[in-house]
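Dear H.,

Thanks for agreeing to be a second pair of eyes. The structure we're designing against is below in token form, covering all 164 positions.
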């Protein structure tokens, strides 16, 4: 069984993430969405809320693609998370050249730690390349329309969270 790991904070999951998940599903039998517990980033959503949104959105994708998709919180090194879930492939989404420079460094470090795990880069579709969770949260905070960037479920959760 080929297992892939797609890591991120997913705060919140966007249409760009969903695009990468859909396309990564064609490459593996099981796709683990590694939900990073990154206290330094100060996420808007609690871990449990991020996992719930991912599970809700990925249930539909799993049915459509026939690929098992599961959410897996992690707080250790990415390469250790890959080992924990049995992943042979780490999937990373790229939006721009700036992403590549950082990702290139990460691949080198991960390969030094465990050369048996490959990293695969997927470019988001052109219509999703500008989407970043950070920008989506900022637009929502300022009362803007985020419906072009997230699903209706996530939009509703953003509005609920920001109303607190």
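And this is the sequence the design step returned. I haven't edited it by hand at all.
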């Amino acid at each position: 069984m080929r297992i892939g790991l797609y890591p991120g904070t997913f705060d919140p999951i966007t249409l760009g993430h969903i695009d990468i998940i859909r396309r990564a599903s064609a490459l593996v039998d099981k796709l683990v969405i590694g939900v990073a517990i990154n206290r330094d980033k100060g996420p808007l959503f609690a871990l449990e809320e991020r996992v719930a949104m991912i599970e809700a959105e990925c249930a539909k994708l799993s049915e459509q693609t026939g690929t098992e998709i599961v959410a897996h919180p992690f707080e250790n090194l990415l390469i250790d998370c890959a080992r924990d879930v049995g992943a042979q492939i780490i999937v990373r989404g790229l939006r721009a050249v700036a992403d590549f420079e950082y990702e290139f460094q990460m691949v080198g470090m991960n390969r030094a730690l465990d050369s048996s795990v490959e990293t695969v880069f997927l470019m988001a579709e052109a219509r999703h390349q500008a989407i970043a969770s950070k920008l989506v949260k900022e637009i929502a905070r300022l009362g803007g329309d985020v419906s072009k960037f997230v699903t209706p479920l996530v939009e509703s959760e953003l509005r609920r969270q920001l109303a607190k």
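Two observations from my side: The helical segments are 15-25, 47-65, 78-85, 97-113, 133-141, 152-163. Strands lie at 3-8, 30-36, 68-74, 89-94, 118-123.

Warmly,
E.
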